[in-house]
Amino acid sequence: MSEQEIKVPDLGGADEVEVIEITVSVGDSVEAEDSILTVESDKASVELPAPAAGKITKITVKVGDKVKEGDVIGVMSASDDTDSADDSDAGDESSDDKAPEQPEAKSEDSKPAPKKKSGGSRTELVKVPSLDGFDDVPVIEINVAEGDTIGVDDPLVTVESDKATMEIPSPFAGKISKILVKEGDKLSEGKDLLEMTVEEEGDADDESADSDDKSESKSQDRQPEQKTDKQESAPEPQGSTYEPPSPGTKVHAGPAVRKLARELGADLARVKGSGPKSRIIKDDVHAYVKSQLQQSQQGGSVGTGSGIPGVKLPDFSQFGDVEREAMSRMMFATANNMQRSWLNVPHVTQFDDADITEMEAFRKGQKAAGEKRGVKMTPLPFLLKACAAALAELPQFNVALDMDRKEVVRKKYIHIGIAVDTPNGLMVPVIRDVDQKGLWELAAESAELAQKARDKQLKPAEMQGACFTITSLGGIGGTAFTPIVNTPEVAILGVSKAAMKPVWDGKEFQPRLMLPLSLSYDHRAVNGADAARFTNLLTQLLGDIRTLLL
Fold first, then answer.
1. Annotated catalytic residue: which of 252, 286, 347, 523?
2. N or C: which end of the chain has fewer CB within 10 A?
């Protein structure tokens, strides 16, 4: 028997991580790769394995300690049999060269290190990259098959979020050896996607050496075991609630799960854990919150307060023939977002008319210039510039409310969302830094984003970060409407169809082209006087577009 320190291996780029569970005790006998303890970063839980078979003689850390790569977490007496076996496997290599290799801990969002092969290729485990904040995105198409040879950035799979369809590209050039997902699976960042063989420069060795190296690579891939909160093998989360917890009830959950519970306002003592040893994982928290929302919408109680009664539908078939079809993901997401905004935001709408007679004459005069540029000048760029100027003049419209912290978040940038009517539902791409762009640039960018929205090619990042939204029904009709604020924004501008109206100029009535404006706002952030100032400023800017240059 020989004494050996147990050290923290490479943590895949993470610095200090917290020890959340110690799975062995002094005196325990362990096999190589048995779990010693579990650590957790903000992204993943990782089990640190025993480097060899033997007996634990000392544990130098405790639950709650922070550790980093190279820290000693314990001491073990390694079995002589194991040492001799390692020496035998080493062949011509010295025993020092074959000291137990520290496996690499891979955090959920880190790219796995290449598994070097003895020949001219290596095996790569391809993981799902960042999905720009989306989780549980379903696979709608597998674009490759096992045995296919592909290049860098070739599409591997196609996924569809609530708002857009995205292709996940290959980070390497090589041959697909194994596909680890199927159509219908839901993907999140860090999940295993497929294995592929990547050719390296240099001479390749014989097939037997290559095969041995593959086995070794796959063995290393499994160590240490990474348990993400959306691990496929985890039991189905329960989401049921307990009776009010008794004093001193201990909750078994990691810091990332506790942080999520705080953000969602979930009482972890009421959440049933589905992880190892009844440990609570993120799926359990999400399931608990979902069950509470469902109870609320069905008229049940949540906590100590009463939920909003749901609407019980009659059997419509008693009145005549009916047909049912499932809501699309986009329709369902939009419905939930609208309901959440309407229930949480005290809406008020301010109405006004803008005289756009001169603006329209100027816009139509740019037709030839637009044809030369390949860009059509619509009224939207003028609305964008006017709204950007109004947001700069009245910054109380460019905020978000943090009611939990009792703070106002004042934004120093001006990004404006434009609502686009598509065959698949309403989508809102975002134009960034509107105040810093000219009319032609805004015309081109808005047309491009609108087309991408209709083609379901918008990326998640292109629909995030708006300070304010413009939604127009001018191409359809109507005189006014009350748009719903897209929270956490605090205002939205609705635009209806322009119409010629008689306007008194002090001496006589003149025919003027009037554009109806409907400004809905969050009355917690904006008062009525400010809303009137905002629409009044818009009418001035649109009435004389030269003021946009001032």
1. 523
2. C
Q: What is the pLDDT of residue 190?
A: 87
- C-alpha 294/C-alpha 252 separation (Å) is 25
Nearest to 232 by CA among 200, 272, 184, 303: 184
In the chain, CATH 2.40.50.100 covers: 2-90, 121-223
Q: Strand 468-472 vs strand 491-495: parallel, antiparallel, or unpaired?
A: parallel
Read off the tokens for 345. Answer: 């935001």
Residue 194 amino acid letter: L
Which residue ranges does the chain devote to CATH 4.10.320.10?
255-306
2-90 to CATH, choices 1.10.10.10, 3.30.750.24, 3.40.50.200, 2.40.50.100? 2.40.50.100
d(CA 98, CA 3): 16
**In angstroms, what CA-CA distances link 357 with 240, 470, 516, 532, 537?**
61, 21, 13, 22, 17
| 523 has catalytic annotation | yes
42-56 confidence digits (pLDDT tens): 656 677 888 888 889
CATH of domain 121-223: 2.40.50.100
- Contact partners, residue 176, CB within 8 Å, separation at least 6: 144, 145, 146, 147, 148, 149, 150, 194, 195, 196
Burial of 327: CB neighbours in 10 Å, binned 0-12, 13-18, 19+: exposed
Q: Residue 432: pLDDT band by 50, 70, 90 thresholds?
A: very high
pLDDT at 361: 95
| 3 state DSSP class of 365 | helix
